[in-house]
Write the structure tokens for this entry.
Amino acid sequence: MKALFDRANAAIREPDPEAKASLAVSLRADWDAGLGARADAGEPSPIGEPGRPQRPELVAPRDLVQRRLSSIEGRAALIHAIAHIEFNAMNLALDAVYRFRTMPQAYYCDWLRVAAEEASHFRMLRERLQQLGYDYGDFPAHNGLWEMCVDTAHDVLVRMALVPRVLEARGLDVTPGMIERLQGAGDGDTVAILHVILAEEEGHVAIGSHWFRYCCEQRDLEPESTFRDLLQRYMRGRLRGPFNRPARLMAGFSEAEMDALEQLDP
């Protein structure tokens, strides 16, 4: 059996979404069963583009069309956008495993769990799309999550600060509103999926918070000021509120960190 980092890399490079999800789930299952090893030699390859299908077409966020949820097409477009986030989140979690090779064993347990749960989210959303007569790839999407993965590939501390705790945490902010809008549109099936995703994403953000603080402790850095400095350096002009303060506090943010986020909201 290939070792952990090789298998994580193979999953990242896999272009077929269902095959990628299967690789993520099986890697987590084997690791939890004690069948994996992390004794790979060498350094990770420089970060590039992950494997992805030819569709969806990737466009700038400003080029994405907003559709009304009163139509099936409008609901499908929203579900597709969330599915694309979950597809990228699989790659993000797998890269967190593959790229940072000197972390404690518990780190790999955590991020393999995240990868497998993101795979489950993607599958649920894709199945819902198919029930509505669409599939993943039928609408354009943007690539912002992976771009931040590239920008943070040099440092696990920066990755933990900015990917789970800033970009992925946006799900904690926006999902309750999406649930409310879909309930108003009578789409209870999608609402049930989003409730599952919201609960698990809070755990994913909490994992990012834990390992960010671990990295700060290892380097004798004060977490709150370090987080604030990273927001200033990487995220100025790129954050939008409002923020779901109660959910973020449950996911490991401090009051001071929330204040720093809100001060950067243009």
Observations:
- The chain has one domain: 4-34+51-264.
- The chain has eleven helices and no strands.
- The longest helix spans residues 188-218.
- The CA atoms of residues 57 and 140 lie 5 Å apart.
